[in-house]
């Protein structure tokens, strides 16, 4: 099930996405009563997807990101594979949705794309045992961990390098039925392939990441875990269109603009 968050005439809601872009009528939203983090009902009220603005699939309290979770990516940046997961936080103000612009930060001259599988948490959880990790997942979405690489190299803490406004595009929706153990991840810039990998290449799978993170902090419904990026990261510039495609989910597209 694909659950999208949308805005129409100033009203924000959720709906189940039905149909495919290639179908004659295009995909439609079956509006739901309530929200996807509890039991909900479909209203039967349907809207063409093209008539609404698709928002980030969740407004997380926090985004917990995992670095160097693909060996080849760690290698391309000259880093060793860490003995324990490298984690950091991206603030809620970094989150943007599909087709929202990525503002190029004024304090950086080297901004990179990082295509990632994102986990959307479905319930409050703490100290989750591995065998129950999947029970706390609502679903998965596409993410782009936009990074000011030059700032990351010069500052020991990554708050500015990875937490600036617009540095966490998410979308286009949450896919609740994905088997995330082995799906393809691709990033293109202006249609040119930059990254291509599979989640089976992750050093630590989703379940292990949930165990590790919830040992330290409580995750709330709607919180997001970024699971790391495969090799091939590289620069983006003002005017570039960046697209993250994950097998079984869809494509998240954003354009880089000059920040006012």
Automatic annotation (TrEMBL):
Chain ranges of the Fumarylacetoacetase-like C-terminal domain: 62-256
SUPFAM superfamilies, per the entry: FAH
GO biological process, one term: carboxylic acid metabolic process
Ranges for domain Rv2993c-like N-terminal: 1-57
Protein's UniProt keywords contain Metal-binding: yes
The keyword Cell wall biogenesis/degradation is assigned to this record: no
This protein's UniProt keywords: Metal-binding
Pfam families assigned: FAA_hydrolase, Rv2993c-like_N
Gene Ontology MF terms in the entry: acetylpyruvate hydrolase activity; isomerase activity; metal ion binding
Name by which UniProt lists this protein: 2-keto-4-pentenoate hydratase/2-oxohepta-3-ene-1,7-dioic acid hydratase (Catechol pathway)
Organism for this UniProt entry: Streptomyces qinglanensis
């Amino acid at each position: 099930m694909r659950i999208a968050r949308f805005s129409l005439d100033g009203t924000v809601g959720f709906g189940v996405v039905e149909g495919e872009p290639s179908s004659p009528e295009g995909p439609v939203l079956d509006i739901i009563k309530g929200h996807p983090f509890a039991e909900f009902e479909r209203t039967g009220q349907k809207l063409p997807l093209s008539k609404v603005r698709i928002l980030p699939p969740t407004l997380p309290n926090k985004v917990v990101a995992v670095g160097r979770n693909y060996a080849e990516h760690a290698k391309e940046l000259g880093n060793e594979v860490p003995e324990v997961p490298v984690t950091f936080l991206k603030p809620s103000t970094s989150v943007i949705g599909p087709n929202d612009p990525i503002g190029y930060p004024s304090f950086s001259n080297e901004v990179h794309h990082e295509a990632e599988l994102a986990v959307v948490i479905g319930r409050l959880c703490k100290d989750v045992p591995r065998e129950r990790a999947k029970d706390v997942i609502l679903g998965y979405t596409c993410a782009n961990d936009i990074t000011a690489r030059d700032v990351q190299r010069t500052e020991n803490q990554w708050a500015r390098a990875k937490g600036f406004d617009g540095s966490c595009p998410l979308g286009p929706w949450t896919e609740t039925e994905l088997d995330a153990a082995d799906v393809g991840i691709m990033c293109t810039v202006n249609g040119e392939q930059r990254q291509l990998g599979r989640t089976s290449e992750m050093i630590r799978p989703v379940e292990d990441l949930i165990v590790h993170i919830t040992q330290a902090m409580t995750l709330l419904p709607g919180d997001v875990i970024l699971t790391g990026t495969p090799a091939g990261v590289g620069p983006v510039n003002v005017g570039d269109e960046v697209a993250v495609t994950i097998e079984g989910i869809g494509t998240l597209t954003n354009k880089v603009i000059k920040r006012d």
